Amino acid sequence: MDLAFVQSGLLERFLDSDVISAAEVEALLKRRGVLDGTPVFLDEETQMPVPPLCEYGRYLSTALLDETTLKDYGRAVGRLDDHLAGLGSDVLSAVESDLVSYRDQRTRWQKKPIGWSAWGKESFVQDDLYGFLVDRKILTHRPARVAARGRNALAPQVRSSMDIRHLNFEQYRYFRDVGLGGQLPDATVDQHFRGWSPLRGRAGSDLALGTGGRWREWSTVLLPEMGLWPGMPGGAAEYTVQACAKYGKARTIYVPEDAVASADLFCLLERPDIVRRAARGLERKARDLFVVGEVDVAGGRVRGILDGVVREFQMSAMPAKMRRITVHEGEFGLEALSLFVCRGGLMPGADAWKGYRHRAWTRMTELADRTTPHLPARRWRWHDLRHTYALQLLTYLENAMDGEEPDMQARRRRHRSYLTGHIRHNPLLIVSRRLGHSSPETTYQYLQYTDDLINEFEAAFSSWVGDDQATYAEIASHSLASTKGAR
After folding, report:
1. Tell me, what's the pLDDT at 420?
2. CA distance linking residue 323 with residue 321, whole number of Å
3. What is the pLDDT of residue 96?
4. With contact defined as beta carbons under 8 Å apart, do 41 and 49 qualify?
5. pLDDT digit string (tens) for 162-218?
6. What DSSP state is assigned to residue 10?
7. How far apart are CA 54 and CA 38, in angstroms?
8. What is d(CA 63, CA 243) in angstroms, rounded to the nearest whole number?
9. Which of 261, 303, 382, 404 satisfies CB 3.0 to 4.6 Å to 312 for a cystine?
10. By the 8 A CB rule, do 341 and 304 touch?
11. Parallel, antiparallel, or unpaired: how do β-strands 326-330 and 309-314 relate?
């Protein structure tokens, strides 16, 4: 079985048919609610759709999953079918032993086995697929038995905790300045550094740490959202993230002044050269871009031309895919409205940021010496900066509430406060809201790290972001002030 994905943007370029035009197909997809990324399963020999599985892809599309998730679901089903084909079976005729064989192959026998967390996601897709096929009467029963309380018997039986990996001050500065910024471990400039746009990497890491946002929440930010737009006062910024947030859950993200300054430095020194070099290429692609002519900063809206039609969007409601093609008329011609840009002049994607991080890690390990902070066995992730933000902010808020009381006495008072204090002043729930967690239960898992004295330092967040003696206590102060002002 072959796997393809709906990609409406390619219709005009590749569809060649006298029967129906690209515009008609695109309009039909929109009318039927078929989203980009919807998996389409094709018979290898005839290249005709496999009806039951394509119905499942259609069902996923109507669930309004994002493009990345739709593709992940499709690939999970495709991998399962490939394995079953080797057993002389397929998705629709599989039995429990076939699924057990697939589980063992993925978690034990393949060249690079996946962990139980990754298998949990695959088993969820299997469970969802077969539940759909049974509900639609395509199958009479699921191929695998149902465990207690309706659980998938092939899913991991032990629920693993969050993989919380965080950096201390020295580790972060080494990652940012040496790995991404092109310095040597002694803080001097490396004349042999061949990296491209070190200030972009530094600004990205400062923004990730300063906001505590997920990768997609900070890497897709637009210039007006950061306050880096003509007529805006500068300083700390706030913007609402929704379409780029996990589960589309809207929340306000606070960007401290030093993180904004780090981004502004990139805009002043590196971004103009990237924009200038890419301007001609963007002009040629103008018909495929959303060309903004009006930015309403106060209302958080942009207005421009997309597909030859004047469109207006709320910035917070713009998904990453839309943000990537959003441009405006700048000094050198068309330039991206996003803060971060790559060689092509548009917003870097997931693979680009992954490459920046991987190259930084290689450089860090190659330059490691006796003065280098301890490097973990596993390569750092951008998400580790989110964990670092959460732990440092939680520790700071707890210490601020403890005051000068002895540690054990303060801890007892703190836990009583957790149960009886007002919900707005609970440090754990403040951090939970800042991170956008769906449930405080997720944030609870950080508690086991807040008493880790190895990774604490006297002034929480002091001098992490920027190059001056800035303090990230302003993040905590802002968090407390916003809770006091809430009603």
Report:
1. 43
2. 6
3. 92
4. yes
5. 678 889 889 999 999 999 998 999 888 888 787 778 999 999 999 999 999 999 999
6. G
7. 9
8. 15
9. 303
10. no
11. unpaired
Q: How far apart are CA 218 and CA 447, in angstroms?
A: 25
pLDDT of 423 higher than 80? no
d(CA 390, CA 209): 9
Q: 10 Å Cβ neighbour count for 481?
A: 11
What length does the chain have?
487
> Sign of the CA dihedral 34, 36, 38, 43?
positive
pLDDT in the model for residue 481: 66
Residues 342, 256: Cα–Cα separation, whole Å:
24
pLDDT > 90 in the chain, percent: 54
DSSP 159: P
Taking alpha carbons only, the member of 201, 210, 183 closest to residue 471 is: 210
Q: What is the largest CA-CA distance in the chain?
A: 81
Q: What is the DSSP letter of 308?
A: T
pLDDT tier for residue 398 given thresholds of 50, 70 and 90: confident
Locate 32 and state its tokens.
């039927």
Pair of tokens at residue 164: 């919380």
73, 125 contact by CB (below 8 A): yes
Instruction: Label the pairing between strands 290-296 and 326-330.
Output: parallel
Amino acid at 282: L
As a whole number, mean pLDDT of residues 327-335 equals 94
Q: How many CB atoms lie within 10 A of CB 366?
A: 7
**Distance (Å, whole) CA 204 – CA 209:** 9
Q: Decide if 109 contacts 86 (C-beta within 8 A).
A: no
For the chain, the C-alpha Rg in angstroms (whole number) is 25
The dihedral sign for the CA sequence 465, 260, 435, 484: positive
Mean pLDDT of all residues in 426-433: 72
Average of per-residue pLDDT values in the chain: 84
Distances in Å between the Cα of 53 and the Cα atoms of 35, 57, 76, 119, 310 are 16, 6, 12, 21, 38
Give the residue-averaged pLDDT of 27-49.
90
